[in-house]
Amino acid sequence: MTVYTGYLAIHQFEKELERELEIRGLIVAHKKERFYLVEGEHPQLIWAQVTGHKMEFLPISSINDGVKKLKALGRNWGLFTVAHHRRAELIQLELPKIKKTPIPFRHPLPTLPMGLWTLWEKDLILCTQKTSSPFPLGEFDFEEDKVMPPSRAYLKLWEFFTLYAPEAIQGGVALDVGSCPGGWTWVLRTLEFDKVYSVDKAPLEKRIMDLGKIEFRKESAFGLDPKSFGEIDWFCSDIICYPERLLNLVKRFMEAGTVKNFVCTIKYQSETDWENTMKFLEIPNSKIVHLHHNKHEVTWFLKGSDR
Ligand SMILES: C[S@@+](CC[C@H](N)C(=O)[O-])C[C@H]1O[C@@H](n2cnc3c(N)ncnc32)[C@H](O)[C@@H]1O
Q1: Which CATH class is domain 4-138?
Q2: Is the distance from the beta carbon of residue 199 to the nearest atom of ligand 1 less than 6 Å?
Q3: How confident is the model over 192-212, as pLDDT tens digits?
Q4: Whether the CB of 202 sits within 6 Å of ligand 1
Q5: Ligand 1: distance of its center to the CA of 221 in Å?
Q6: pTM
Q7: What is the pLDDT confidence band of residue 305, given thresholds at 50, 70 and 90?
Q8: How far is CA 61 from CA 1, 32, 78, 96, 122, in A?
C-alpha cells in the first residue's frame, strides 16, 4: 500500500511550502486546498503547519463507517477539510471531542497522539495518527498574560520554551538582543536565570527594567563583544534585521565558544530569504521551525544538549 507524507501549508505561506518542497526535491503527488501529498516517508517541513507521516487512504461506505474506522485507529483526530466539508464535519462530530482550552506557559504537552485526517473524496478518508504536533492541526493558544508583557512577541518565546525546550532552567545567564520593549526579557526574567542581559538601541519599558537581575545595554547588537558577557546559557534574538546579519552575529558568538543554546527569530522582508535560511540550517544539529506564533519569520535554534 502506498504511504504518503502530508503537509498542511500555513495559511498564506503556501508559496513558501512549495519552494521548500522544491528545494528538498520532493514531488507533490496530489494537492487539494493547502494540503500537499508526497509519496513515501519524508521529514517535517518548516512551512508545514502540521506534517502527517505515513498517511493512508481509507475507503468508507458511509459516515458511520468513517467514524468507526477512524475510532479504530486512534482517539484524537484533527480535521482539515479539503472537500465534502459538511460530510467531513458530520464524521468529526461523532469522534471524541478534543478540549481546545488555552494552556499555561510551559504546561506539559499532551501525551496522546494527535491524528490528522481529511475527507479526500466523498468515500475516501486520508488519515494518520503520526503527526508532528500534539495539538489538532498544530494549533493551540496560551492563557495570555495581559498585564506584564509590553508586546505580544513574548508568545513566540513562550511557545519555544514550552514545545522545544521544556527542561528546567536552574540559574545561569541569558542574553536577549533586540529586546525592546521587553517581552522576551520579561519571559527570560520569569524563568530561573540568575541574570538577563538585554540589548537594544531603544530603551526597555520601565516596569521590565524594575524586575531586577536585568543588565540593559543600550547599543547595537552587532557591535557586541561576546567576551564581555562571559558564559551564556541562552542567546536569544528577536532583532529586526536581514537574516545574513543575524547569521554573522550568531557565528561570531559561536566562534567565541561561550554560548550553550541559541534561539533566534529569522525575519524576512517581502520575500523569504532562502539562501540564508539554508545557511542557518547548515549549522550542525540546529533546527528551524515556524512557530504557531511566528508570522513571516521562522525560529532557528541550537541546543547544547543536541550538539
Ligand atoms: C520585534 S522587536 C523585539 C521585540 C522584543 N523581543 C519583545 O519581546 O518585546 C525588534 C527589536 O530589534 C531592535 N533592533 C533593531 N536593530 C538593532 C540593533 N542593531 N541592535 C539592537 N537591537 C536592534 C529594534 O530596536 C526592536 O526593538
Answers
A1: alpha beta
A2: yes
A3: 899 999 999 999 999 999 999
A4: yes
A5: 9
A6: 0.96
A7: confident
A8: 20, 22, 21, 21, 9
